[in-house]
Amino acid sequence: MNNKEDHFKKVISHAKEYGFVFQSSEIYDGLNAVYDYGQNGAELKKNIREYWWKAMVHINSNIVGLDSAIFMHPTVWKASGHVDAFNDPLVDNKDSKKRYRADVLIEDYCSKIELKINKEINKGKKRYGDDFDLTEFISTNKKIIDYQNKIDSISKRLASSLENENLSDVKQLIEELEIADPLTGSKNWTDVKQFNLMFGTKLGAASEHSTDLYLRPETAQGIFVNFLNVQKSGRMKIPFGIAQTGKAFRNEIVARQFIFRMREFEQMEMQFFIKPGTQNKWYKYWKENRLNWHLSLGMGEEKYRFHDHGKLAHYADAATDIEFKFPFGFKELEGIHSRTDYDLNQHEKFTGKKLRFYDPEMNESYTPYVLETSIGLDRMFLAVLSSSLIEEILENNSIRKVLKIPSVLAPYKAAILPLVKKDGLPEIGKKILNDLKLDFNVFFDEKDAIGRRYRRQDAIGTPLCITVDHQTLNDMTVTIRFRDSMEQQRVNVNELLPLINKYASMKNWLNKL
Question: Is it the case that residue 1 has pLDDT exceeding 60?
């Protein structure tokens, strides 16, 4: 097992042990690729959602929120193209009986070539030291050039085959690359077939009178069908955006990698309606804006990169992904797409109702273009959790498990710990708790030795521990212990609220934007 696989297993184990993520219906042996968020996970997830919402809706005066229904008229999904084209190319291994996404098998093959490129770069860094020039090295190293050309050639061929629905060529590419079943090493593959990902359900008490419906596979269509409702009721002027967060459902046959790919998941999407012809400007703007939001959390600039789409959806004129370095490699975290006027035109066509914007300055009506940003909340949760889990060897050779979660996202911002359960210390601790709890989510713990309590708070990512001791009785000062450095300092209880504000308030963190 390599270090990355080992780390990922530790992340999954930590998530369960400390109340972040549980297997759904676990006492019934679980349900594959469905998960529940525990007491700490629910708080972390809520904080990520709120950090996104404030940055997207509250900071921008021309973006408003929406909460559309999961159930929608079935023709919505015909108009959007999901009924006919929302498919994944799947391939079965005849020996292992396992099913895989054909495109993911090929992308994973390319990822292994990328690892070879990184290995060459690391060799170059060691060889040339301070004289190392990355750009020059990549452009002149024959091995790297050959590796990159191979990746580009494979990606271009895959994109072309999928766009033209040439599934036989996708299988041929798998065979030419000699891609094996990751579990067994078998190269005995079936033909590649398309599989629709939407969950079907029914609306109505009696089966003979029921209506076939779908669980929404994305939240975006709820925004498009409400475009005019929001625009008119809010007197919105172009450019403006509509944002929403909510559950979506996809019948992923190859759900994998813990909560990275699930059948029930949550999206945070914003559709930005713009004047036709301005899409390039807004595409660049939202690429920069969204990357800055990620970087504001301080998880490391090197963990993010843009990946422009080789294959564009038929309605798009530009698309890129913000990829994050998960324990299993760089994978899509957020998509930024220039969707042109496809969505509104499709709903116009299927409903016969005009979905246009009247521009009083130009004295004309037009169908707006759309710039979309779409991030998976569960994937963002996994990005935060996996990049924050650290095992530190301390001076006494003991190991400290600590979640160095950005403090603005931490489930609890501070823990209040009376040194002993007597002498009036718990009473002072509870007074501090009551003074702080309406401003921040804080934790009270009086069980076990103080060292063990520190370790518990480290493991759930609490950035500050407030210890109430006998000196507090005399001068109303407490000890603040900082999670990341383990340093301690003495402060007056009146300084606690501004101190927590400094470290954990959304206002202070969002000011970085």
Answer: no
